[in-house]
Amino acid sequence: MKRQNVLVLYLADSALDSPVIAWSSWDGTGTTRRMAGDEQEPPYPDGLSALRDGWRLFQTSQLVPHYPGAETQTSYLKYEFLFEQLVEVVP
Amino acid sequence: MSGYRKLTTREMARFVARGYLMYPALTPPELTERYLAEAAGPGVPEVPAGTPLLDAYPPGSALHGLITLPEVRGVLDSLVGPAPLVDHHFVHLTLGRPEREALGMGQALPSQHWHQDSTIDTRAGFDVQLMWFPHEVTPDMGGTRYLPGSHLRIVSEAAIARYQNIRGQRHVVCPAGSLLVLHHGIWHGGGSNGGETTRHMVKIRLHPTVPQVRLWDLSDFAEADRAQRPIFWQRAARPDGDLHDILCEYQPWYEADTARLEFINRVRLFRYLLGDETFDADYWLTRLEFPPERRVETASATA
Fold it and tell me: Do B77 and B190 fall within a single domain?
């Protein structure tokens, strides 16, 4: 039986080898309890390192043109990369 | 910090850049002891939204003592003026192990998701939120987590909950009587209390009743603070306390392209506070506002 672990890395720009500025881990196996604020250092220095460690990239955020009149407004983290690992678990 | 004193221009600029000011052990032990005794008894009163701050708490109570403390008055006068209104207050309690077990609760509750209080807020000025920690907060007690420099991001409350950890995030660890003064927009969340002691944090949100223009002590604002200077290619370090450096302080979680947008938004806020639409730091707004056609217009007008 397989379960999905998801790692989300927020990078400094739209290139996969740019530095990690934020991160989230979601454990589909239920063996770890992750929560906001539980780590001060990211699991990888950049997105490419996660790829090289076996994580499969399945989604990246799009580059969205800036709304007229709001070009200098800042909001949500822009460069989101979602990775997965499928893990075998014993039922 | 001792007695009544307004913020300096540098302190104001740090608030504009970081979105917070932290005052460790600001309030005297007598006040924190009074609060803890009240918490065990009558507790904190209900206050209707929009109540003038000075009318909100009974004289003699711990919270009245807090908001009339000269050190606190100086900070509030500088940020929201002399007569702010109470938007709301809230006592955040995070139970320690003995109290959890007494209530039949198991492990500690998880930390609170990242969020920005209230709702989408695009006004020029700001509310402040006081977070008062009436007892020591040790690392295992899950002190409030906050993100320096996040206050000018326009987001919708808990929409940022998908982020778990962000470079540069800070956790309050402080002595008793510490006061954290926040811009309303700062991203934050309560931590998970894995310790023995129940954690109290009193939050009071204040709304200004006057334009937040030149409310601080400007005696240290000099003409040199307006001057532009070399940017990017700089042979020598700038002196400590350079106003442009304070306003353009980098945060490790900013994207490569958004750090400079944050600087632009900070300059806009500082212009509002200064009441001067010509102020700039490191040319970020000037290059956008002064294209060639406007230079021609200006030259014609002054000819």
Answer: yes
Share of chain B above pLDDT 90, in %: 89
To test the contact with chain A by mutation, choose from B250, B255, B286 the residue with the greatest count of A C-beta atoms within 10 A, namely: B255
Residues A3-55: pLDDT tens digits?
A: 999 999 999 999 999 999 999 999 999 999 999 999 999 999 999 999 999 99
Beta carbons of B153 and A76 less than 8 Å apart? yes
pLDDT digits (tens, 9 = 90+) for B3-39: 999 999 999 999 999 999 999 999 999 999 999 999 9
CB contact under 8 A, B114 and A36: yes
Contacts of A9 in chain B (CB under 8 A): none
B2 occurs within a structural domain: no
Considering only residues B178 and A91, tell me which one the structure prediction assigns the higher pLDDT.
B178
Enter the pTM of the model. 0.95
The reply to whether B202 and B227 lie within a common domain is no
Predicted confidence at residue B98, as pLDDT, reads 92
- If one counts the domains in chain B, the total is 2
Q: Which residue has the higher pLDDT, B237 or B300?
A: B237
Task: Say what the ipTM of the complex is.
Answer: 0.97
Say whether B254 and A21 touch across the interface (CB within 8 A). yes
Domain around B270: 221-302
Q: Where a domain ends, among B207, B231, B256?
A: B207
| Torsion angle of the four alpha carbons B253, B282, B81, B29, in this order, in degrees rounded to the nearest 10 | 50
Which 3 state secondary structure label does DSSP give B222? coil
**Domain termination site, one of B180, B207, B234:** B207
Tell whether the model's pLDDT for residue B1 goes beyond 60.
Answer: no
Q: Report the CATH number that the domain containing residue B155 is assigned in CATH.
A: 2.60.120.620
Q: Tell me how many domains chain A contains.
A: 1
**Cα distance between residue B121 and residue B241, in whole Å:** 30
Alpha helix positions (H), chain B: 9-18, 29-40, 53-56, 62-68, 70-80, 97-102, 243-247, 259-274, 286-289, 292-302
pLDDT score of B303: 63
Considering only alpha carbons, which residue of chain A is nearest residue B143? A37
Residue A47 belongs to domain spanning: 2-88
Q: Which helix (H) or strand (E) holds A49?
A: helix A47-52
Residue with tokens 């938004």: B265
